[in-house]
Amino acid sequence: MQKKIVYVKRLVPNNDLLKYRSVKDLDGFVPDLSGSATVQFAHYQLKFITTPGDAVYEVSVLYDSKQAKVTVDLKSVSHVNAYGDLPHCIVDKNFFLALYCVCYDKIAGNEKV
C-alpha cells in the first residue's frame, strides 16, 4: 500500500523540440521550427514509500497517450532503502518477491516476544 509519494517526474520533449523540422541555413545554425510533431509517449519517474515496512521504491513508467496504456517493467523497480530481514519468510522461496514483501511477523504489533 502506498504511504507517501516522494516525487513524480514527467519526461517529455519540450515544445521547441516538437516544432523542429530541419535547418534553414547550410551551416545548420538556424532552425526551421515549422514542424508539428506530437508526443505519443511520456516517461514518468516515481519515488514512493509503502506501508508496512516503510519501503522506498523508484520506478520508471511508460505512458502511451494514443492507446491510454501504462507499461511498468517490474525488473526496473528499485527498492532503494535497506530492507534487512523484513522479507525473510519469502526470500528462499522466491527471491524476486523479496523486493516487495514484508513478512507478517515483522509488521509493527505482530512481532513475536
The quaternary structure here is single chain
Task: Provide the low-confidence segments as ranges.
Answer: none
Q: How many individual β-strands? A: 7
| Radius of gyration computed on alpha carbons | 22 Å
Mean pLDDT: 89
Please give a structural write-up:
By secondary structure, this protein is mostly beta strands. The protein has two domains: 2-81, no CATH class; 83-113, no CATH class. It contains two helices and seven strands. The strands form two sheets. Strands 1, 4, 5, 6 and 7 form a five-stranded antiparallel beta sheet that branches. The chain has a two-stranded antiparallel sheet with strand order 2-3. Strand 2 (22-23) and strand 3 form a beta hairpin. The two termini are 26 Å apart. The mean pLDDT is 89.
List the helices and strands and how they pair.
Blueprint: E1 2-11, H1 15-19, E2 22-23, E3 31-32, E4 41-50, E5 56-64, E6 69-72, E7 78-79, H2 95-98
Summary of the model, kept short:
This protein has 113 residues and is mainly β.
Notable traits:
about 110 residues; mainly beta; 2 domains; 5-stranded antiparallel sheet; two-stranded antiparallel ribbon; 2 helices; 7 strands
